[in-house]
Specification:
Shape: elongated
Number of helices: 14
Low-confidence stretches: none
Strand content: 5-15%
Order of helices and strands: EHEHEEEEHHHEHHHEHEHEHEEEEHHEH
Structural class: alpha/beta
Mean pLDDT: 94
CATH superfamily of the largest domain: Glycoside hydrolase/deacetylase
CATH class of the largest domain: Alpha Beta
Distance between the termini: 32 Å
Largest sheet: 5 strands, parallel
CATH architecture of the largest domain: Alpha-Beta Barrel
Number of strands: 15
Radius of gyration: 24 Å
Strand order of the largest sheet: 9-8-7-15-14
Number of domains: 2
Helix content: 25-40%
CATH topology of the largest domain: TIM Barrel
Length: 437
Amino acid sequence: MIIIYAEEVTIRMKYIFSLIFKEFLGHGVEFTTNVEEYYMSEYPAVNYSKKPIRQNEIWIYPHGLLSQLGIKDINLEYAEFQGIKCPFQTFSKESDFPFDPFAAAFFLITRYEEYLPYKKDEYGRFPAHESIAFKKGFLQFPVIDQWVMEIKKRLEEKNPSIHFKENKFTFIPTVDVDVAYAYKLRGLIRTVGGFILSLIQFDLNSVFQRFRVLLGLEKDPYDTFNYLLTLHKKYQVKPLYFILFADYDLNDKNISVLNKRFQHLIKSLGDYAEIGIHPSFNSFEMPGKMRKEIDRLSKTINKEITKSRQHFLRMNLPSTYNYLEDSGIKEDYTMGYARHIGFRASTARPFYFYDLEREMPTYLKIYPFAVMDGTLKDYMKLTPQQSEDTIKALISRVKAVNGVFISLWHNHSLSGQEQWQGWRRVYEFLLRQGTEK
């Protein structure tokens, strides 16, 4: 047990202290506002007040964010710590940290800044370049986990008998199935339309390839599922597939949900992997549509759907997460950026979402991902070799804090098509790095 003293114990304090000590470090916490009780306690101690009290305590001068309610524009001051500009500078030379790591962790992990006014990108998303992690240069570092490791270290130095749980690095490869097949199972109208469009664009390679696939002379280029099965078995990982199971629309172009062969594919994937929903493009603000797609996929595979990732990573906080929780989703994997790699919530560990509008923690667990195939190739314009170097650096940072590394790939990016040549090598490199001891 760790005893924590504060002049006032708030719901925000309970959330972030419990998250750090109980969830991340596996150690119980006890809060007190009684100075004498705190001083006399034999437990390892954390003092979260404006004055030091005990000799063997960790003393953090509080910024004040955790004593507030509501969402306000905050004038952030930064302190240099371990080479990183950390928000919520304390201005106290005696404090164990030059900034308030608990306020900073709360601000970052709740995505406080996403509740404030910002300029949305073309898909209505919060863009990475609006975040303080991007602006201050720590987006590609799981800084909260680094701070937790330092808190753990200092508690151990002052309390040699204390024991924390030993976290282990975990790798979770995930695959989004936006379009299961490039040419197969498209239906007559979509197939004819595809031929016409390719002819108008003078894309004769696509015309001939479509013919060969439909005649059974060539495998559909997006049909990489057996390849993925072989790789995942080789590296002994259990992947997680997110299936777009929506009605056809401009940005939702998967195979018809009524197609029996598509349904069979999903069921076969479920034999060796976990299946989650990939709610459609507009579902992030349409709870009825979201619920319909979840129920439809659940009935198709005859299993409860509890995991989700939004299509195009579109979400609004806190409404999208509330809709997901109301629809029976227990885990969401949307927390990441499309245009930038790194740690959107500044952690490489799953955590329970805290709703700032309702000022309460929820039962929805957030699993942040760190890297996506399209980010590397389309937005960062990296070569396969540069992508491997980037992936290796990210994984090494997560391993250093014994975190959870989650990757986002697509079945079509392993097609070997001209624009994706060399990327099968990158995915196998990712699996090798993620499973390497």
